[in-house]
Amino acid sequence: MTLSHLQPTHHYIRLSMQPRCTEVLLIRKSIQDALADMFGLTSAGTYIDVLFVNELGSESVVRVHPEDAPRILAAVVGASRASIKCSVVKESSFLPSLVSDDLGAP
Fold it and tell me: How high is the pLDDT of residue 5?
Protein backbone atom coordinates (compact mmCIF):
# COMPACT_ATOMS: atom_id res chain seq x y z
CA MET A 1 0.00 0.00 0.00
CA THR A 2 1.36 3.41 -0.94
CA LEU A 3 0.56 6.68 0.69
CA SER A 4 -0.39 9.57 -1.51
CA HIS A 5 -0.44 13.15 -0.38
CA LEU A 6 -3.53 15.17 -1.08
CA GLN A 7 -2.86 18.28 -3.08
CA PRO A 8 -4.70 21.40 -1.91
CA THR A 9 -7.43 22.53 -4.27
CA HIS A 10 -7.73 26.05 -2.82
CA HIS A 11 -5.56 28.64 -1.16
CA TYR A 12 -6.98 31.16 1.33
CA ILE A 13 -5.75 34.70 1.95
CA ARG A 14 -6.82 36.92 4.84
CA LEU A 15 -6.54 40.59 3.90
CA SER A 16 -6.68 43.82 5.83
CA MET A 17 -8.25 46.65 3.82
CA GLN A 18 -7.95 50.43 3.89
CA PRO A 19 -10.27 52.27 3.42
CA ARG A 20 -12.82 49.94 4.88
CA CYS A 21 -15.12 48.24 2.40
CA THR A 22 -18.01 45.83 2.85
CA GLU A 23 -18.81 45.50 -0.87
CA VAL A 24 -17.62 42.14 -2.21
CA LEU A 25 -17.58 43.36 -5.82
CA LEU A 26 -15.38 46.35 -4.97
CA ILE A 27 -12.91 44.12 -3.14
CA ARG A 28 -12.72 41.68 -6.05
CA LYS A 29 -12.41 44.54 -8.57
CA SER A 30 -9.59 46.11 -6.57
CA ILE A 31 -7.64 42.84 -6.55
CA GLN A 32 -8.29 42.31 -10.26
CA ASP A 33 -7.10 45.85 -11.02
CA ALA A 34 -3.92 45.17 -9.05
CA LEU A 35 -3.38 41.96 -11.04
CA ALA A 36 -3.91 43.82 -14.33
CA ASP A 37 -1.46 46.57 -13.35
CA MET A 38 1.26 44.15 -12.29
CA PHE A 39 0.83 41.16 -14.63
CA GLY A 40 -1.33 42.33 -17.53
CA LEU A 41 -4.92 42.06 -18.62
CA THR A 42 -4.94 38.26 -18.84
CA SER A 43 -4.15 37.93 -15.13
CA ALA A 44 -7.07 40.20 -14.27
CA GLY A 45 -9.35 37.31 -15.20
CA THR A 46 -7.99 35.15 -12.36
CA TYR A 47 -10.80 33.57 -10.36
CA ILE A 48 -11.11 35.15 -6.91
CA ASP A 49 -13.82 34.12 -4.49
CA VAL A 50 -14.44 36.51 -1.59
CA LEU A 51 -15.63 34.24 1.22
CA PHE A 52 -15.90 36.67 4.10
CA VAL A 53 -15.92 40.40 4.84
CA ASN A 54 -16.18 41.45 8.48
CA GLU A 55 -18.94 43.82 9.55
CA LEU A 56 -16.56 46.78 9.75
CA GLY A 57 -15.15 46.13 6.28
CA SER A 58 -11.60 46.13 7.57
CA GLU A 59 -10.78 42.48 6.79
CA SER A 60 -11.75 39.85 4.27
CA VAL A 61 -10.90 36.27 3.33
CA VAL A 62 -10.52 35.28 -0.32
CA ARG A 63 -10.19 31.84 -1.91
CA VAL A 64 -7.99 31.30 -4.96
CA HIS A 65 -6.39 28.45 -6.87
CA PRO A 66 -3.02 27.45 -5.33
CA GLU A 67 -1.17 28.19 -8.58
CA ASP A 68 -2.58 31.73 -8.63
CA ALA A 69 -1.82 32.51 -4.98
CA PRO A 70 1.78 33.82 -5.41
CA ARG A 71 0.71 36.14 -8.24
CA ILE A 72 -2.26 37.45 -6.24
CA LEU A 73 -0.12 37.98 -3.13
CA ALA A 74 2.44 39.94 -5.16
CA ALA A 75 -0.24 42.05 -6.84
CA VAL A 76 -2.02 42.86 -3.57
CA VAL A 77 1.18 43.87 -1.79
CA GLY A 78 2.61 45.78 -4.77
CA ALA A 79 -0.55 47.63 -5.79
CA SER A 80 -0.01 51.36 -5.82
CA ARG A 81 -3.07 52.68 -7.65
CA ALA A 82 -5.74 50.40 -6.16
CA SER A 83 -8.88 52.02 -4.79
CA ILE A 84 -8.70 49.71 -1.77
CA LYS A 85 -5.25 49.14 -0.30
CA CYS A 86 -4.90 45.58 0.93
CA SER A 87 -2.26 44.00 3.09
CA VAL A 88 -1.84 40.30 3.77
CA VAL A 89 -2.62 39.30 7.35
CA LYS A 90 -2.21 35.56 6.82
CA GLU A 91 -2.37 33.01 4.02
CA SER A 92 -2.71 29.24 4.02
CA SER A 93 -4.10 26.26 2.14
CA PHE A 94 -6.01 25.34 5.32
CA LEU A 95 -8.94 27.71 5.89
CA PRO A 96 -9.32 27.19 9.68
CA SER A 97 -5.74 28.37 10.20
CA LEU A 98 -6.81 31.89 9.20
CA VAL A 99 -9.31 32.14 12.02
CA SER A 100 -8.23 33.92 15.15
CA ASP A 101 -9.94 35.62 18.07
CA ASP A 102 -9.54 39.08 16.59
CA LEU A 103 -11.27 38.34 13.26
CA GLY A 104 -14.08 40.85 13.04
CA ALA A 105 -13.12 42.73 16.18
CA PRO A 106 -13.00 46.54 16.01
Answer: 75
